[in-house]
Amino acid sequence: MKKLGKIGLIGLIASMLISLAPIPVKAVSSANTLAGLRKDLAAFEQQKRNNDNKKKWTQSEIVQKNNDIANAKKEIDASEVKIEEAKQSIEETNEKIKEYEAKTEEVMSFYQIMMGENSYLEFVSDSSSMTEMIMRIDAVEQLIAYNQEQLVTLEDLIKENEQRQVDLKKYENELNSNITSYESKIKELDSDLLELADISLSIEDDIQSQKDAIKTYEQMGCREDETLEACIARTSSNGGWLKPVPKGYIVSLFGYRQGNANVSSNHSGIDIGVSEGTTVLSSTNGTVVTILHTNCGGNQVYVQSYIDGKPYTVLYAHLKSVSVSKGQKVTQQTQIGISGGYSTSTLHGGYDRCTTGAHLHVSVSETVYQSYSNFVAHLINPPGYPKTKGAWFYSRTQWFD
Ligand SMILES: [Zn+2]
Questions:
Q1: Is 139 exposed, middle or buried, given 0-12, 13-18 or 19+ CB atoms closer than 10 A?
Q2: pLDDT given at position 40
Q3: DSSP-derived 3-state class of residue 76
Q4: What's the average model confidence in pLDDT over 145-174?
C-alpha cells in the first residue's frame, strides 16, 4: 500500500506538471514514405483551394469597401452643395424680409401721418371727397395686412431653412463617420490579405529540402551513429536571439488568426512590417539547412540553430533576394537577404501568390530540420517579439516576454 501511495503521489505530481506545461502543438506525422508525402500533397492542394477562395472573397470585399468609400465621399460632396444652397436661400430670404420690413415701415409711417390730426386735416382738404379718403385708408390697411402676412411666411421659410441646415449637417457628420469606418475596415482587410495562404510547399520542394538537410548535416560532420540533435548541439554556438531587423512592427501574430467572416487561418509565424528592401540579418548563430524558392512563400531561408539546450529552425520568407548559400555557417551579423513581399507578389507582377504587401515572415520551429511537415509540427511563437498586432520593436536586442 505504501509503495502504491508513493507511485500515486509521483503520478499526481507528473500530471500536475503536464497540466502546467503549454498545450503541445498537434503533431503531424513526418512524411518519410512516398505515400505519406503524396498524402501531404493532397492536403496542400486542399489548403490551396480553400485559401484561394478566402483570398477571392477578401479581395471582392476590398473592392466593395472602396466603392462604399467613393459613394460616401460623393454623398458628402452633394450634401455640402445642399448646405451651401440652404445658406444662400436663407440669405436671400433675409434680404427679402429686410425689403418687406422697409416697405411695411414706409406704409406704417404713411398710415400714422395720415391718421394724425394735422395730416388728417390736410388729407381731408386735399381730398375731393370723404369717400375717396375712406377708400385710401382701406387700401393702406389692406397693404399693411398683406405685408404682415408676407413677413410671417418669410419667417416660416427662414425657420425651415435653418432646420434644413441642421439636418444636412447631421447627415454630413453621419457620412463622415461612415467614411472613417470604411477606411478602418479597408486597413483591416488589407492586413488580412497581406499573407492569406501562409507558407506552403510542394512535394518536390519538400523532398529537395530533405536532401539539402542531409547534405548539410553531412558537411557539419554529423556521425552516422549520433542523433541529429546531439550533432547540432556539438557543432553549434549559442548566441541567443536577436531581431532580424533593427525595427519593425507586428502585422500578423503567430497562430490562429481570425479575419473577417470567412477569412481565418493558422499562421505559421509572425509577419513583421518592414519596407521592401530592408536588410534581413540572422536572428541566431547557425547553419543554413535549406533554401527554397516557391510560389507560396517566395525565397525562404531555413537556419538550423541550437540555443540554451534546444534545437531550433528559423525561417525567413518572402525575401526579395538571398545572400547566403545552402550549408553556410551564419552568425547574428550575417545578412540572410533583403525583404520583399510587395514586388514579389503576384498582385504586383511577382511570382509569390501568398503575399500581397511588403513584410518579413519569420517562423521558429523547435526541432532539427528533417522535412517541412516536421518543421510545421514543431512551430512555436517566435520568442521575444511584441505579443500584440501593430506593436513596434526598435532594436535587435529589444525583448518582449
Ligand atoms: Zn506570415
A1: exposed
A2: 53
A3: helix
A4: 80
Residue 342 resides in a domain = yes
pTM of the model: 0.56
- Between the CA of 302 and the centroid of ligand 1 the distance, in Å, is 14
**pLDDT class for 33, splitting at 50, 70, 90?**
very low
The answer to whether residue 61 sits within a structural domain is no
Where among 166, 191, 216 does a domain terminate?
A: 191
Mean pLDDT of the chain: 78
Q: How far apart, in whole angstroms, are the C-alpha atoms of residue 220 and residue 306?
A: 13
Last residue of one domain, picked from the residues 191, 225, 255: 191
pLDDT over 50 at 130, yes or no:
yes
Find out whether 286 and 326 touch, Cβ atoms under 8 Å: no
Q: Is the pLDDT of residue 45 over 60?
A: yes
Provide the domain limits for residue 76: 68-191
Q: Is residue 242 part of a domain?
A: yes
Distance 332 CA to ligand 1 centre (A): 21
Is residue 229 located within the same domain as residue 162?
no
**Ligand 1: centre distance to CA 326 (Å):** 22
For residue 316, report the distance from its CA to the centre of ligand 1, in Å: 9
CATH number, domain with residue 166? 1.10.287
Specify the pLDDT at position 44.
57
Burial zone of 28 (CB within 10 Å; 0-12 exposed, 13-18 middle, 19+ buried): middle
